Amino acid sequence: MPCLPERTADVPTSSASATDAAKPAASGGVQSLERAFDLLERMADAGGEVGLSELSASSGLPLPTIHRLMRTLVACGYVRQQPNRRYALGPRLIRLGESASRLLGTWARPYLARLVEETGETANMALLDGDEIVYVAQVPSKHSMRMFTEVGRRVLPHSTGVGKALLAHTPAEEVRALLARTGMPAATEKTITTPEGFLEALE
């Protein structure tokens, strides 16, 4: 389905915001695309529904720029506008997420199933995505009582065993930088909450 947003008069545009799409991003990519994906992630972090002013405050982008990007995302179905004029994540994102999850699950499932057979415990596959751990595939054990971790769940690396495993061979300075960005809030009373303690646990 083509994404052809219609111009609306909710927020005035400016010549500066109208030329944003033509500017190259610092990464060498397309700035407007990077900004659109950043807004989607900020919406997800906020619980899936936000107002334009909230997005402007968290992203630092001007309202006209955000409005233009959101209008395009609405036209494409990746965002929908609520009756209260706030914006929510749209249904087309479900298709993308399901496709990505299915691909990873198809590849990983035979290996996870073998682990379940050998250990008798639930096997999960997780990746380091940016500064977070995301669970991307799972094969449950046959036990009636078992630990349940939802595929798609995101956690901070310092608070999980899989985070320690993924960072075990990462240089100490990179681990410290990651922990400085994420912070180290306690998930339980046994969570390691200092960089020194976490690095010691990785040894």
Question: Would you write up a description of this structure?
Answer:
This protein has helices at residues 15-18, 31-45, 52-59, 63-76, 92-119, 161-167, 172-182, 195-202; strands at residues 49-50, 79-81, 87-89, 123-129, 132-139, 154-155. The protein has a three-stranded antiparallel sheet with strand order 1-3-2. A three-stranded antiparallel sheet has the order 4-5-6. The chain is an alpha+beta fold and 203 residues long. It folds into two domains: 31-89, Orthogonal Bundle (Arc Repressor Mutant, subunit A), CATH 1.10.10; 93-201, 2-Layer Sandwich (Beta-Lactamase), CATH 3.30.450.
SSE layout:
Blueprint lengths: L14 H4 L12 H15 L3 E2 L1 H8 L3 H14 L2 E3 L5 E3 L2 H28 L3 E7 L2 E8 L14 E2 L5 H7 L4 H11 L12 H8 L1
Antiparallel strand pairs: 1-3, 2-3, 4-5, 5-6
Helix pairs in contact: 2-4
Number of strands: 6
Mean pLDDT: 83
CATH top-level class of the largest domain? Alpha Beta
Oligomerization: single chain
CATH architecture of the largest domain: 2-Layer Sandwich
| Low-pLDDT residue intervals, each spanning 5 or more residues | 4-22
Order of helices and strands: HHEHHEEHEEEHHH
Count up the domains. Answer: 2
Widest β-sheet, arrangement of strands: 1-3-2
Instruction: Give the CATH H-level superfamily of the largest domain.
Output: GAF domain
Shape field: globular
Going by helix content, strand content and strand pairing, the class is alpha+beta
Report the span from N to C terminus. 51 Å
Tell me about the largest β-sheet: 3 strands, antiparallel
